[in-house]
Specification:
With 90 residues, the chain is of the alpha+beta class. It has one domain. The longest helix has 18 residues.
Length: 90
């Protein structure tokens, strides 16, 4: 699982986004959740006092393994930011 930022070239650099997005290009400019090379949802960050909240919205129900992969990605993001991250999955 990867947390890609909005306007990431993986997602927006191609006219035909079907192979990545499953035929949907409507969310091309929002941060994307990527699993096994496919867009499976979106996410956003909300800065709070001392913590970064990552709100993830999956297009379908995540398996336990996928949820763990998402949590791991959020943890890596927090290390990158140098701040603790709280993950909320909607």
């Amino acid at each position: 699982m990867h947390l890609l930022p909005n306007y990431d070239e993986y997602w927006v650099a191609y006219k035909d986004r079907g192979p990545v997005a499953g035929g949907s290009g409507r969310d091309a400019f929002v941060p994307a959740l990527v699993l096994d090379g496919r867009i499976v949802g979106s996410w956003r960050r909300v800065r709070t006092r001392g913590t970064m909240v990552v709100e993830a919205t999956a297009r379908g129900r995540l398996t336990r393994a996928q949820a763990l992969a998402l949590a791991s990605s959020a943890e890596r993001y927090g290390r990158f930011l140098g701040a603790p991250v709280q993950l909320i999955v909607k």
